[in-house]
# Entry
Amino acid sequence: MAMFGMKVRFSDERGDDIRNIEMISTKLVKLTAALAADLSHQRCLRLWSEFIRKRDGHRCVDCHSRLRLSAHHICRKSLLKSAEFQTGNGITLCSSCHGQIHQGFNGRPDLGLPVDAQNGEKLRTMERLYSILTDDAVERGLMREEFYFLSDEVLMCFKRMQGYDWADFPGARIEQAYLILAECESSIRESMAEAEGVPAPDRPLLPGGMYLVFPARDGQLRETAVVQTYVPRWKV
# Structure
């Protein structure tokens, strides 16, 4: 069709979306088959990296650069080996963003020390990466469990690190990872509550949440209430 002397091509956006999902799925099938066949670590890592970069549209999820890209493990495999090839543990970053994350300690952690005592795991960075990866998946309509998978074992490890192994968190698995890491450590929260002479919250305080403590009246104990305002970005 010609318009004002120019040829105009109408793209089938829905068709493009379907083809993109099919190509991402093809990469995932190859990775899954390689892991099932127990192929070499190097080959599985290459296929994992190819899947992550294809899923993320071959651009840095943080700054959207398309130059010198790498597939980054959000949670280092030296801390959680089981997460090494899980699709929810990868994010595409350019060399600049990738280099900033790896500044400082980048060796094998001393597991006898508290988590991130050497500033190698960078928990706040992990929290942020899971957050922007969640936003990216939702905005691009790609939020599928197989594309962003984290096992129950990995999520439970994050909960134990923060002291919330008894709690449930909403949203898709990568969103749960973000919410768990965004929590104040339960031991710190309990110490603060004890210092104030009130019971600790009986559930996590999701981002934006508040723990309200009301003044005592007529010799009664102070009352408390948890107010949650967080709305999951993806409802499972």
Observations:
- Residues 20-205 form one domain.
- The chain has a mean pLDDT of 86.
- The helical segments are 13-36, 41-55, 95-101, 123-139, 152-162, 173-182, 186-196.
